[in-house]
Amino acid sequence: MRILLVHADWLEVEPKTKAIATAEAVGKEKQRWEDCLVVFTAVEGRDEPALEQIIEKTGDAIIDVAKQINAKTIVLYPYVHLTSAPAGAQSAHKTLTDIQSFLNERGYSAYHAPFGWYKAFDIKCKGHPLSELSREITVEPSGTSKQEDTVSGALKAEEKVRSEWFILAPSGELTPIDKFDFKPHANLDKFKNYETAKVRGVSGEPPHVKLMRALELVDYEPGSDPGNMRFYPKGRTIKALLEQWINLRMLNYGAMEVETPVMYDFGHPALESYLNRFPARQYTIQSAKKQFFLRFSACFGQFLMTAGANISYRNLPMKMYELTRYSFRLEKAGELVGLRRLRAFTMPDIHTLCTDMRTAKEEFANQFKLGMECMADIGFGRDEYEMAFRCTTDFWTSNRDWVVELIKIFGKPALVEIWNMRFAYFDPKFEFNFVDSAGKASALTTVQIDHENAQRFGIQYTDADNTRKYPLILHCSPSGAIERVIYALLEKAHMDSQSGKVAALPLWLAPIQVRLCPLSDEYIKDCVDVANDLKGEIRIDVDDRSETVQRKVRDAELEWVSYILVVGARERKEKQFAVRVRETGKLERMTLDELKAKIKDKTAGRPFRQLGLPPLLSLRASFVGG
Fold this sequence. Notes:
alpha+beta, BirA Bifunctional Protein, domain 2
C-alpha cells in the first residue's frame, strides 16, 4: 500500500467519465473539502492476502499524521498511479471504504473521492514542513498475526464459492436478478445490490450513530477494543427490555434455557474442527501455556452439554436456548461503525435437535414463522425488511416446492442465493434483513440446518428400534443480536423522519414513556405525587429544572419522550391534561387514568422495566457532551 499525504487548504474534485465498468454510482457535480488532510492511495497486488492488516496499519499511519497537523477532516483519493503493480478493482474499492470506516470510527470526518472515475481535481497545499508526506505500508512476509491465523477454513472457502442469484416470487416463479423488475420493490433492489456487491465496509457515519449519542443510549468505549460499546442508563433500559422480551418468547416457544462458558480450549478436537467450519474470525487468549478462544455463539457449550445427555427420540425435537452475553467475533476494523456490526454482542441462540430432514424442515418452518412474529413484536412491518434464502444446488433441486411454501408465508418476493457447493456446516439457511438508509443490509432473524456437528461432537439419540443415531441440528437466532436490533430501530426512526413521519421508538421500548413538566415550582409536588403513583407501571419522570415550559417541552421532544404533560392550575383543578403525543404530533385531552389505559393497551404483552434514571431531571448527570 502506498499513500501520499497532503495537508490542504482545500481539495475540489469533479468526476468526468467512468474509468472501469464497476465504477461507483455518483453524480458528476463537484465536491469540495476545506482544511483537510488529503490521502492519495494505491492498493497493491501484494496487499491482497492481508487486506485487514493493511487497512489497520494504513489507518494508524494516517491518524499519526492527522494528529501531528491537527486535521479533523480526511479525504481519501484513489490514485492507482502511485504503483506499477496495483491490486484488483474490487480489493482496492473495499480497502478504500474500509479505511474510511476505520477513520470515522476513531472520531475523524473521513470521505473518499469517487472510485473508478477519471477525475479533475484542484488542490491547494498549505506548504508547511509536514504538509507533504509519503508512506509505504507493508506487512510481515507471513501476512498473518496470531489472531489472523484464526480465520476459519469456512471463511476462506466462502470467498471461493460461486453463487447464482435469483428472485423467488410467492407464485413460485424464479427469475435471475438481471431479469427481474425491481421497480415495485425498491427495498429488495437495495438489498440485492448490497448482497451481490459483497462490500461490507461503511463509507460514512450511519445516522443511527448520531442518534445513539444524541439520545444518550450508547457510545464507543475508547478504553476497549473497537466494536465493544458502553450503554448509558437509557440504552441499558432498551437493551434489558429486549432481553426480557426474547427470553419470554423463547420460554413460551418451549426452549430450555441454559448457560455456558464464554471461553473454550482451542485444542479441543471437536472445537478445533468446528472453528474451521464456522465463517467467522475468532479472538484467542493465551493462558497457562494453553490457547483459548472466546465463543462467537452458544454452539460450543450447548453441543458439549448435549453430547453428554441421554436423549431419546421421544425428546425430539429438543430445543436449547441461551442469551449469550457476550459472543465475540473479530470483525474487520472497517466494518465496525456504531451498533450494526460489533466484536462483542448479545445473541439469542437456539439449537434444536431433529430426527431427520423431514422434521428438520418442519421445525425450520416453525422458526421461520417465529421470526416473523419477532419482527412484528420489535416494530417492523412486512415492508420494512427483506428475506434471503441460501442453499446449495442439490438442496434447491430436492426441496424447491418447500422453499416456495416459505415464500408464500413471507408474502412477497425474496432473494435466493444458490451455491455450487457447501462451504460451511449448514445447508440451507434464511435471514430476515433490515436495509438502512445507506443501502447496507443486516441480518436479524436467521435459521440454518446443520449437517455436521452432531457427528463432530458425538451428539446422539436412541431411536425407537434402540439404535443410536445422529440428529440434524437447527441453529436459530429469532431476532438477531440485541445491539443490532437497536441499530435497526434507530435507522428506521431516521428513515421515518426523512419521509415526514415522527422519529420514535416503540412505546414499550421508550426509556421515558411520560414526562411531567410543572408550569412553575408550585406544581413540582403535584408532578412528583403523580410520578410516584405510576412509577411501578409506567416509566415516568418530572422536569423540575428552573427552565421555561417551552424549553422543558422542547427537551422532552429531543429525548423522544412518548407523552409530554404540562401541569399547572387548570390540570390540578380539573384532573385533565393536554397530552402531547409523540406518535401523532397532536395534543389530546385525557385524564391520568385514560393515559395509563392507553399505554397499557399499546404495550400489552410486552415486558416492563422501571425507569433507569433519577425521577427528577435536576438530579441527572449528562453522559454525552459534558
